[in-house]
Specification:
Elements: E1 10-12, E2 15-17, E3 21-23, H1 39-50, E4 55-62, H2 82-93, E5 98-104, H3 112-115, E6 120-121, E7 135-136, H4 139-159, E8 163-168, H5 173-178, H6 193-211, E9 217-222, H7 233-246, E10 250-254, H8 261-264, H9 276-283, E11 290-292, H10 299-307, E12 313-315, H11 317-322, H12 326-332, H13 349-352, E13 384-388, H14 392-403, E14 407-412, H15 419-424, H16 433-446, E15 450-453, H17 459-465, E16 469-472, E17 476-478, E18 492-493, H18 494-498, E19 507-511, H19 515-526, E20 530-534, H20 546-559, E21 562-564, E22 567-573, E23 576-581, E24 584-588, E25 593-596, E26 600-602, H21 607-610, E27 616-619, H22 629-642
Parallel strand pairs: 3-4, 3-12, 4-5, 5-8, 6-7, 8-9, 9-10, 10-11, 11-12, 13-14, 13-16, 14-15, 16-27, 18-25, 19-20, 19-25, 20-21
Antiparallel strand pairs: 1-2, 17-26, 22-23, 23-24
Helix pairs in contact: 1-2, 2-4, 4-6, 6-7, 14-16, 14-22, 19-20
Length: 643
């Protein structure tokens, strides 16, 4: 299939962009602690410019140090930042991409821990997520911030940026002024629609005075804030008319605020292209380009959006994390080699809000954020590499090692590749996991990986093959704790149920409320079973990412799934369990099927037998310690890079 619309040029004001691929501004935490441009930030953006994206939008760049939303947010509030930005812009321009910077102030959607002060806002109403009561800005302070946006835009122009994007979306400061949800003022910046619009209007006017008439200004806003009392698409159409009239050159139509976070950065439970209607509605009332965004996760959907006239450009956010080379692959016809976003949320949003991580990456593509340190480079001397295990860790290690020039064979004891991650694709909304597995296999075949299924690797086989390197990725197995009555042959393990190996009765008890248990409950609930989960912790699904959990819990409620928490199982019965809750012994019986989902443990029977007989032996993923596919893929990539 050709993609004539996606690959055609377009103009935003005076700026011509070579294609319709946009990378929207997404917080990365890649800047230096003082907000200056880091080499990591440059490497990240250069990789995507090389990959063929037409317009890159550098993320949430603070116009004021008190407006930061994340710890390592880039800044543009002072002239001292200009040299760093110029270096980044010059590197990106070498590859024919245009680059804009997003001018941002968090307003109430930040915390004292991030900015070292009380947040500010139009009104002293806390964000329902960050929860800190902000200080209401005085009228004079509002005018001062208008100046700061204009000065930041001038710095962006002086640094060589091709355009600026003004961040009026997602419930940040400009959005807070625009919305009756957060603006309860009674001065010239609140009280009715036009007064609420004065802040963004005056910002655009100020920017235009300071950068000149020919410089492109893009305005990003949420078409629907998805919160009670927030702005909906009807009012957003009027917003668009007002902002076009004041001099905006393009609109970037997003959705949501922090109070509707699961929709703002939507997981796989939300259909691809779920926000396209908003871009289409805005496009109906304006005469400038409109950029659509919202789980546009493959080129076929993107081309359809443009062909149908629903938008003029498409933002591929998390998809650009998964594959920085997507546009080049589309242009070259290598569609099957596109590394997919699977909507898992784990290394993008998950890392961003994880104090132990902070800097984003991608589960499917662990090279994201490490472009300067993890490089797939050809080896001087090819080695014979044996990969044991066909789960995500083994598949990742195999194709990366093969691309580097090693001779790789992968062995899997089952008759199909994918390991337990393949089974993880069976519950509702998890089907995109299969895209990731198919991608790894496709890349492996391209670079000559030999796949051998239905082969269980023994130390004798290793000795016969005489590999230079063995990568053990044998995964984990279900954990069966030593609890009275647990070894009942009529009980099922969650993976057996999902994989169709065991029949399940009408009434089901699932023991274990972590990811595996709740996703099994989701699967069974969808198929009409009456499900109860018993969990020793205070809640179920706490190892799921927040947005994933939000939609999952909605479905469990719809299916009538019951959960008993803070309950420690003491004994298994034929049709139930005896458990302790709050120091009291309880009995739960009457179930047709009992399913065990009590965690996993490492499975690594090979390492000790071969570690002194093979020059290099590495263990990755669950074979080290039972965790998520995220860690397995990340560890596998690092091993494949160093051998």
């Amino acid at each position: 299939m050709d993609f004539p619309k996606l690959l055609s040029p377009i103009k935003i004001g005076t700026m011509e962009v070579k294609n319709r691929f946009v990378i929207p501004p997404m917080g990365t935490n890649f800047a230096n602690p003082d907000g200056s441009v880091s080499q990591q930030l440059i490497d990240y953006w250069v990789a995507r410019a090389k990959g063929g994206y037409g317009l890159l939008m550098v993320e949430v760049t603070a116009v004021d140090p008190l407006g930061k939303a994340i710890p390592f947010q880039p800044g543009i509030w002072d002239n001292k930042f200009i040299p760093g930005w110029k270096k980044l812009v010059d590197e990106v321009h070498k590859y024919g991409a245009k680059i804009a910077v997003q001018l941002h102030h968090a307003g109430r959607q930040t915390t004292h821990d991030v900015i070292g002060a009380q947040p500010v806002a139009p009104s002293p109403i806390p964000c329902p997520v960050d929860k800190e009561i902000p200080r209401e800005l005085t009228t004079d302070e509002v005018y001062d911030l208008i100046e700061k946006f204009g000065n930041a835009a001038r710095r962006a122009r002086d640094a060589g940026f091709d355009a600026v994007e003004v961040h009026g979306a997602h419930g940040y400061l400009i959005a807070q002024f625009m919305s009756p949800y957060s603006n309860k003022r009674m001065d010239e910046f609140g009280g009715d629609f036009m007064s609420r619009m004065n802040f963004p209007v005056e910002i655009i006017k100020n920017i235009r005075r300071k950068v000149g008439n020919g410089y492109p200004i893009i305005f990003r806003f949420s078409g629907d804030e998805r919160v009670p009392g927030g702005r909906n698409i009807d009012e957003s159409r009027i917003v668009a008319r007002v902002m076009e009239n004041v001099g905006v050159d393009a609109f970037h139509v997003s959705t949501g605020v922090y109070g509707s976070m699961p929709w703002l950065i939507a997981p796989s439970a939300v259909p691809p292209g779920y926000n396209i209607y908003a871009a289409e509605e805005i496009k109906k009332v304006v005469n400038i380009p409109v950029i659509a965004v919202g789980r546009i996760n493959d080129p076929f959907l993107a081309e359809e959006i443009l062909e149908n006239g629903e938008a003029d450009m498409v933002s591929l956010g998390r998809e650009s994390l998964a594959d920085p080379e997507l546009p080049n692959k589309v242009a070259s016809g290598f569609i099957d080699e596109i590394s997919p976003c699977i909507g898992c949320m784990q290394a993008c949003v998950g890392f961003l809000f994880d104090p132990n991580r902070l800097k984003i990456s991608c589960l499917v593509n662990p090279f994201t954020g490490k472009e300067g340190e993890l490089k797939i480079e050809k080896v001087d001397k090819s080695k014979k590499v044996m990969v044991v295990g066909g789960g995500p860790g083994g598949l990742e290690a195999a194709w990366v090692a093969a691309k580097r020039g090693h001779k790789v064979a992968l062995y899997e004891k089952e008759n199909v590749l994918g390991g337990q991650y393949r089974i993880g694709a069976i519950p509702p909304t998890k089907q995109d996991i299969l895209k990731a597995l198919k991608y790894y296999i496709t890349m492996g075949k391209k670079y000559g990986v030999l796949y051998k299924t239905e082969v269980e690797v023994t130390d004798d086989l290793v000795m016969r093959e005489k590999p230079d390197v063995v990568i053990i990725a044998t995964g984990g197995v279900p954990l069966v704790p030593n609890i009275k009555g647990i070894n009942n042959p009529n009980f099922a393990k969650a993976v057996e149920v999902l994989d169709g190996e065991k029949e399940v009765g009408r009434s089901v008890l699932i023991v274990g409320g972590g990811m595996v248990g709740v996703e099994t409950a989701d699967f069974l609930g969808e198929h009409g079973h009456k499900v109860t989960i018993i969990e020793m912790l205070s809640n179920i699904a706490i190892d799921e990412e927040a947005a994933v959990r939000y939609f999952l819990m909605e479905r469990l409620a719809k299916y009538g799934v019951k959960a008993i928490t803070n309950a420690k199982v003491k004994e298994f019965l034929n049709d139930g369990v005896i458990y302790d809750k709050d120091g009291k012994e309880e009995r739960l019986t009457g179930f047709d099927t009992i399913i065990l989902a009590m965690g996993a443990k490492a499975y690594n029977p090979l390492e000790d037998k071969i570690k002194d007989k093979v020059p290099e032996v590495y263990v990755v993923g669950d074979a080290v310690k039972a965790r998520k596919a995220l860690e397995a893929i990340e560890e596998a990539a690092k091993v494949a890079i160093k051998i």
